[in-house]
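Repro case for the chain-ordering regression, as requested:
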Amino acid sequence: DIQMTQSPSSLSASVGDRVTITCRASQDIRNNLGWYQQKPGKAPKRLIYTASSLQSGVPSRFSGSGSGTEFTLTISSLQPEDFATYYCLQHINYPLTFGGGTKVEIK
Amino acid sequence: EVQLLESGGGLVQPGGSLRLSCAASGFTFSSYAMSWVRQAPGKGLEWVSVISSSSGITTYYADSVRGRFTISRDNSNNTLFLQMNSLRVDDTAIYYCARGGVSRAGFDPWGQGILVSVSS
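-- result from build under test --
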């Protein structure tokens, strides 16, 4: 199984900050990586798929990059509604596996 | 609007069974692989199972549920199912129905989730 390691597990940031979250795969997954946002008590929502493709309706301040084993989610200017937990997901083969999550909190 | 609505959750004793349903609307259900993903209280996301589109001949399971859970679909009624047998305390989680899998580059959208509690 492919292991996904996210870092950091949590971070504190202010509105307007640039935020970067990293996800590392235990083997080459090419560009088969997605990012999901989950707010408390809500279902996850896809932000990014195939490493850098922005899901329809998602603000352009969210971007994804990377390939192979290292990937990044960037929020260019953090907004109040962005405080949430973020997960990466490898979607190259089964079993699909998620990273452990990154909780973005208000500083 | 694409919608997924889970039902069938609740409290069950260890060793018991439960059948989850997910009613889909707003898209051609038979054309999509469908998955179940769960989240234990205060924990991260865990993929559980997937069923292929159309006839649903192909299924995959996480090691943690293989042999105990069975995924199926009824395309005539746009409904996805998860039959859960031999339930254990560590199966306690919110279970989400989600459209997609490997063939759809992940999951979109997700249902609102349904709570399954396994406790004596």
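Ordering looks correct now. DSSP finds no helices and eleven strands in chain A.
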